[in-house]
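Protocol step 4 of 6: structure prediction from sequence.
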Amino acid sequence: MDEDDWAMQEGKGWLDVTVAWEGGRQLVEVYDAVRFARTVEFELDQVGCFTARCLLVVPSVTHENIESAISAIADKGFFDHTQCSGTTPDGLPQ
């Protein structure tokens, strides 16, 4: 994405990101804290609950924040143990 795309995503406060590595991939829902709170509140009002498969909350939805956060959780083995996107570590459907 270019700078304008990133600026638009930062303003929206959320973005779906596919994280790929050798042997796998995960879809990650990325939110800033304000948008996340609004989304949870809306879902609670409309549906009565909130669910998310693979959620990452960052201070703001910028390329730098997302890359830094994903790197940090990957270094801690997050993607080794989660199957939050419905795929196996090798990216094949369950």
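Step 5 (inspection) to follow. The first helix runs from residue 3 to 12.
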